[in-house]
User: Fold Helix-turn-helix domain-containing protein from Psychrobacillus mangrovi.
Amino acid sequence: MEMQPELCRVEDALGILVGKWKPIILLILLQNGTKRFSDLKRSIPGITQKMLTNQLRELEEEDIITRKVYPQVPPKVEYSITEYGKSLEPILVAMHEWGTAHTLHKMKKSQQTLFRIE
Amino acid sequence: MEMQPELCRVEDALGILVGKWKPIILLILLQNGTKRFSDLKRSIPGITQKMLTNQLRELEEEDIITRKVYPQVPPKVEYSITEYGKSLEPILVAMHEWGTAHTLHKMKKSQQTLFRIE
DNA sequence: CGGCATCCTGATTGATACTG
DNA sequence: CAGTATCAATCAGGATGCCG
Assistant:
């Protein structure tokens, strides 16, 4: 395939995926399709409300997810992955697979270090 | 495949790819195998020497590229992609392909906006 | 419940100048 | 040629508090 640096479109995908919590949010929505705000928050240990809102807004802005508000008390807001968002799955899978192999690579590296020290 | 959020290894790949100039550097080295510093700089419009050095160091630290210094005057330093670094190619290709499609998506979106305005 | 507004900190990036 | 050093600017991320 043609992938000249001048025609590099890698940044587009990277721009959408970059954000401390976006990959995990997308993985959850890819697995579940739809989740409400509080469910997401509970599924992602350590995230603050601000950051969850923030990352969701950015993903929504890119049409990767949709936001549905149920006008009721207490409020209920559901987030869903879009068809377009689902198209990111191959990238996330590729990254996950690479990351798994990367773990092994790091283990090998630290073992080599141990050998050198001894 | 197994891709539970708790077992998410996506961040590893993302961490290596994130950096304003890393993807373009990797694409160039994947295509050329080896390039010297000045060639890289010329191939990447807008990058400063500092940032090129910076990003190369980080990639080297992760064993994605290697740095070979020729002790001569004027200095010559060559950067090459490692076998390990080549394993990132599927991710970059997947992102590039997605980015290309993304361009079309954005075009459609702006057209819809135009229709709504008229 | 699901936000938003404010303030704050550290990391990232950049401009510029200098060097072996 | 291939850097390093310094300083400045920008930005992502986080802590906290208030609100309908």
